[in-house]
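User: Continuing from earlier, I have the next pair ready.

Assistant: Great, send them over.

User: Here they are, in order.

Assistant: Folding the first of the pair now:
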Amino acid sequence: MGDLTTYSIHLTTDFGEWSRYNVFMMGRCRTGDGTEGDYIHLISRGDTDGNTFTPSTDARRHLTLDTTPCVEFELYIYIVANTLPASRIVSQSPPFEVEVTIRTPEGEVYAKPHTVNQWGGATIYIEFPRK
């Protein structure tokens, strides 16, 4: 197995209607001997009550979740719409991207855009190190 290190997971987007979404990040770290380590989680709720939506003037949201020292981890990110898109016409509500970046004290080890369906949201699964 590898060395123990901490990971910092970052999720960012500039999508104008980002405040309609709730984000749940949950993960599990494994220690050097392969046993379960700590569980990590983050919950970020959107700015809407689920019935109405007014686009935020500052739509950018940056979420960060840090692990405890571990050799490897698995992470689930759920992006769930809390209300409908501004337009009810599907063709006017295309998917958007969120950027997921993972860093260790030594530097960036993962950076990838993930597509989010405005109607159905997204589920992102990441195992690290990549298998």
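And the other member of the pair:
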Amino acid sequence: MTYAEPPCSHLDTLREVTPSGDGCEECLKTGGSWVHLRLCRACGHVGCCDQSPNRHASAHFHATEHPIVQSFEKGEDWIWCYVDEVYLEPA
């Protein structure tokens, strides 16, 4: 995996967060399904990825402008900045 050099300018938004749940917050409320989960590193929102039918992680980014998500899948620790479209070193 290639990481951005230099990293994006949104690193100041990274926070230690508590996940909002064990699954996609919106899908759990509506009975939807997901493929993979993403954790917002600004607020802890857990949303489904862009391969999922409802793309709640991206929707959360567009609604809140929280730019950085981390994979919320076991064994994965990559981080993505929506604004700069780059992978970042795990924090």
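Worth noting for the second one:
The chain has a mean pLDDT of 92. The chain has one domain: 11-88.
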